[in-house]
Every structure is written in C-alpha cells, then in structure tokens.
Specification:
AAA+_ATPase; binds adenosine-5'-triphosphate; ATP binding; transport; 11 strands; nucleotide-binding; ATP-binding; Rossmann fold; 259 residues; alpha/beta; globular; 29% helix
C-alpha cells in the first residue's frame, strides 16, 4: 500500500479577520506523487504551502505530514521558494548556499562537519551543479541558481519537496531541463509544485490540483478544459506543452500567457 505523505482534512485558513483563503481543503498526497498545483493569482496556493510548512495555522481542520502534526512533520519537507532577484554583490558561493540547507540538522552553534560536506557535494551532483560549487551565486543564470536552491532544499534530506513556481525566473529554453530534473528527483522523493504553466503541468506531473480557495479538481492529467475553467472561472485556451497556451483575459480573470 502506498504511504500517505500529506493529508489535509477539512482545512480552512485565513489571514487576520478577513475572508477565508482556503476553504474546506481535503487532499491526500502519496509517496512519490508529483503534484502540480495550479490556480489564479490569489487563489491560495502559497497559503497552502505556508500551512504545510507550519508558517500559518488553519482555524479549522487537520494537517498531517507522514502521520505527524505539522510541527513534527515539517522536518521532512524541503522548500524551494520563488526565485527573487539577487544583489549582484552578494558574496556567497554555490556550496555556501547549499550548506545552509544543513542548518536544521545542526544544534545551535554546532559547526558543519564532513557529513555535511559529503551531502553538499552529493546534492550538487544530483542537480548537475557540482562543477560550479565554488562559483559566486551572483554569477549564475536564473536556471543555474534555481538548481542550487533545489540542492539546498535536498541537503536537508527531505521526503517531500515543495516548489513555488520553479521556472518563473528561468529562461524558456532552460525550463524544460528544470522539469526533467524534477522528474528524475521524483523517483526518490514526493514533489508538490505550484505553477502557472498549465502546459508543463500536463506534460510532467502525475497529479494535478486546481485551487481557487477551494480545491476544484484533484486527479490525473490531462486536465480537462472544464476543470481549468471551473478553477479560473473564465474561458481557457488550449493546453499542450511547447505550444503557446493562455487563460483568456475576458471576464474578471487575471491574464496568464506563456510561450
Ligand atoms: N500575509 C498576508 N496577510 C494578508 N493577506 C495575505 C497575506 N499573504 C497573502 N495574502 C492574501 O491571500 C490571498 C492568497 O494569496 P496566495 O499568495 O496564497 O495566493 P497564490 O495562489 O499563491 O497567488 P499567486 O499565484 O499570485 O502567487 C491573496 O489575496 C493575498 O493577498
């Protein structure tokens, strides 16, 4: 039987006294699933990650990570946040960034040891960046930096990898290789990825979740146009990887366009 790695049951969450951002979310993710989470801007995808990472507590419902509460289970999660613009003077090398992923494994003020170095090198090799381990991070391209941040998340030896828009700042030619890397990593690890790239979602993931405050659809690709339209609540153009596709901008729907 497949192991349940994430289970959300009747989860409701909101910021302050505002409207609920997550409404009655029921979601089970199994070991070595590769889940793509899509939905319109503001639909609550990042909020769902915050709940899984213990950064936000639902006001109703339960969340289990490998059968544990979030406070115990979050140590099994590696998180790759959205890539932000980097200060070009930032004086940190690739291996230093990956080593930071070992911090959660250290006691306060404990020094890094040889095991940390082995893991840093192993994860850099996994993401194809070992040769650049001593390069300043600021000299790398968006795609290379994203690989380093994936290595940093892997350095904590997680069972689950959460990625927020992993190809948003990666040029289109390199996006495919990031998805190929994730597909390879997925042989060992469960992956949940937020993306606006419906084409890539259809091509690479095993399961899709459509989130717009509620989870409108959770199942296998290919995604039906109806499922997407119900989530985005507006008409959607075609879905095919490598082919231009878009969510049409009429009604009040935010425009997403990828080529
Ligand atoms: N710290 C916060 N305090 C108050 N409201 C917030 C906070 N963070 C997010 N929100 C609001 O919660 C809603 C959901 O945001 P969230 O970032 O989860 O959406 P998302 O689906 O990830 O969107 P996007 O695709 O734009 O990243 C938005 O309306 C946002 O303005």
């Amino acid at each position: 039987m497949k192991t349940e790695v994430i289970n959300l049951s009747n989860v409701w969450a909101k910021y302050n006294q505002k409207d609920s951002i997550l409404e009655d979310i029921n979601l089970t993710i199994y070991e070595r699933d590769f889940v793509g989470l899509i939905g319109p801007n503001g639909g609550g995808k990042t909020t769902l990650f915050k709940v899984l990472l213990g950064l936000m507590k639902p006001y109703q419902g339960t969340v289990k990570i490998l059968g544990h509460t979030v406070s115990k289970g979050r140590r099994y999660i590696g998180y790759v946040p959205q890539l932000v613009e980097l200060d070009r003077e930032f004086p940190v090398r690739v291996a230093d960034v990956v080593r930071m992923g070992r911090l959660g494994k250290r006691r306060l003020l404990q020094r890094y040891n040889s095991k940390d170095e082995i893991i840093v090198n192993r994860t850099l090799e996994q993401v194809g960046m070992l040769e650049l381990r001593d390069r300043p991070i600021a000299e790398l391209s968006g795609g290379q930096r994203q690989r380093v941040y994936i290595a940093r998340a892997l350095a904590s030896e997680p069972r689950i990898l959460l990625l927020d828009e992993p190809t948003a700042s990666v040029d289109p030619q390199r996006q495919t290789s990031i998805y190929e890397l994730l597909k390879e990593l997925n042989q060992l690890i469960t992956i949940v990825m937020i993306s606006h790239d419906i084409g890539a979602i259809s091509a690479y993931v095993k399961t899709v979740g459509c989130l717009n405050h509620r989870l409108f659809f959770h199942g296998n690709p290919p995604l039906s146009t109806e499922a997407i339209e119900q989530t985005y609540q507006c008409p959607v153009d075609l879905i095919a990887h490598g082919v231009p596709h878009r969510v049409l901008s009429n009604h009040d729907c935010p425009l997403h366009y990828h080529e």
